[in-house]
Amino acid sequence: xxxxxxxxxxxxxxxxxxxxxxxxxxxxxxxxxxxxxxxxxxxxxxxxxxxxxxxxxxxxxxxxxxxxxxxxxxxxxxxxxxxxxxxxxxxxxxxxxxxxxxxxxxxxxxxxxxxxxxxxxxxxxxxxxxxxxxxxxxxxxxxxxxxxxxxxxxxxxxxxxxxxxxxxxxxxxxxxxxxxxxxxxxxxxxxxxxxxxxxxxxxxxxxxxxxxxxxxxxxxxxxxxxxxxxxxxxxxxxx
Amino acid sequence: xxxxxxxxxxxxxxxxxxxxxxxxxxxxxxxxxxxxxxxxxxxxxxxxxxxxxxxxxxxxxxxxxxxxxxxxxxxxxxxxxxxxxxxxxxxxxxxxxxxxxxxxxxxxxxxxxxxxxxxxxxxxxxxxxxxxxxxxxxxxxxxxxxxxxxxxxxxxxxxxxxxxxxxxxxxxxxxxxxxxxxxxxxxxxxxxxxxxxxxxxxxxxxxxxxxxxxxxxxxxxxxxxxxxxxxxxxxxxxxxxxxxxxxxxxxxxxxxxxxxxxxxxxxxxxxxxxxxxxxx
Lengths: 239, 280
Description:
The structure holds 2 protein chains of 2 kinds.
Chain A: E1 4-15, E2 20-32, E3 37-41, H1 48-56, E4 63-70, E5 73-76, H2 82-91, E6 93-96, H3 108-118, H4 123-136, H5 153-165, E7 171-175, H6 183-198, E8 202-206, E9 219-222, E10 227-229, E11 235-237
Parallel strand pairs in A: 3-8, 3-9, 6-7, 7-8
Antiparallel strand pairs in A: 1-2, 1-4, 4-5, 10-11
Helix pairs in contact in A: 3-4, 3-5
Chain B: E1 30-39, E2 42-52, E3 57-62, H1 68-75, E4 83-88, H2 104-114, E5 115-118, H3 122-125, H4 132-142, H5 148-161, H6 178-190, E6 196-200, H7 208-225, E7 228-232, H8 236-242, E8 245-250, E9 253-259, H9 260-265, H10 270-277
Parallel strand pairs in B: 3-7, 3-8, 5-6, 6-7
Antiparallel strand pairs in B: 1-2, 1-4, 8-9
Helix pairs in contact in B: 4-5, 4-6, 5-6
C-alpha cells in the first residue's frame, strides 16, 4: 500500500468575472511510497505547481482522489475537512516553495524556529535546531538576528528551506526549491534531499534544473500544456 | 467567448463540500448554528453557522455591512440573536448548553470568564480615564480577585504578556498611542485566561509599523498559550498572517469558508474572487 495514491486528479479554474473555465490538468493518476522521489515535468503553465498545490489543498482539485496513509488513518486529501488538512500540514505534510513569506519585524531565527514551536518544542530546543540547520544551509550567523525582508533572493531561500525542513515530514512537496540558489547552496540542498530520501520521506518535486536531482528520481509525471476546456466542460487536447 | 454578464452571481451554495472532520480527537471548542439577527426588519445575520477547534485562529472577512462585527457581538454574548445556538466546550458541564438560552447572570459569568474581546475602537473596550493597570484589574475584580497587591501583580503580568511598556502602567489609555491602547485592551481581554479570544479589527487604523508589532504579539501569544481566536478583519494581510481558516461574509451570510491559503489563492465563489483580487 503506497503512502500516497492519486487517482484521476483534475483541476480547472472557474474565473467568474470572465465567465470562463480554464483547464489545468486532467485525470492524472500516480502513487508515491515512503522514500520515493517523483518529479513533475512539463512546460511553463502546464500545471506542475498547480498539481502540488492541489495535493497540499492550497488549490481545490475539481475531481479525483488522493489517498494518503496518515498516522491517523487513511485520508482523501482532496476531500478531507479543512481542519484535518491543517492538522496534517502541522504534523506530516510539508510544502517547500521558492519564495519566503517573511513578516515585518520577525527575525530569521524566529521564522525558522516557528514550525518547531508550533509542535510544542521548547524555545531553547527550537533555537538550537534552528541555528544548526541555518549553519548547515550556509547562512552566515550574523544574519540570524536580522529581518529577512532585506536579504538577497538566495539568502531568503536559505531561510525558506530551513523553515521548511526543520520539522520532520513524511511527505514533502517541493516547488522549485533550488530557484535563486547558487551552485554551492544547490548542492547542499541536494545532499539534504538525499538524506531525507534515505530516512524514508516521500517527495514530489518540480525542479527547474532536474539534472541536480536526476540521480534521486524514481518516477516522472509528465504534464502536457496542450489542454483546453470545451463549452460543456470537457477537456480537449489541442495540438 | 461569451460576453461577461452583469448578473449577480449565485452565492447560495459552496461549489465544494468536504468531509466532516475525522482526525481531531476532541470536539470543537466553539459551535454556533443557525444564527439569525434582524435590526428593524433588516437581516444583519442570515443563518450563520461556524465551528472553531481549540488552538485555531478563524478569520472572518467581509466588507462593511457583511455582518462580521455583528456576529462577533453575538459570540461575545453582548446581544442575543433572533434564532440560533451557541455552544462553548469549556467544560463538560457547559458542553451541551446553548449560551443564548442561559439566564442573564450565567451568560455574564461565561462572558467574563471564558471570553475576551478586543474592539477596533478602544473606547468601547476601555475606561479611558482609569489607569491602564486599573483597566486590566477591573476585570480581575469582577471575577472576585481582591487585594491590591495581587490585583496589581496580575495586571502587570497580563500587560507584560501583551508587550505593553510597564513604566506606563499607571497612565490612562487616553494619553496613550493607538497601538498601546490596543495592548491594554488585549491585556484586559486575557487577564482571566479565557478559552476564546475575539478580535474585531485589532490593528485597523494603527500606523503600519505598529500594526506589524501588534500582529507579532498576537501571533506569539496565540502560539504560547495555544489560544482559540476568532478574528474579524477586512485586511487580507492580517488574515494571512494570523488565520488558519477563513469565513467570507456578505450581506449577513457566509459565502465561502476554507483554509486561509486556499481562500486567498484559489477562491471558489465569484464574490470571494472579487474580494481577493481587489487587494492592491
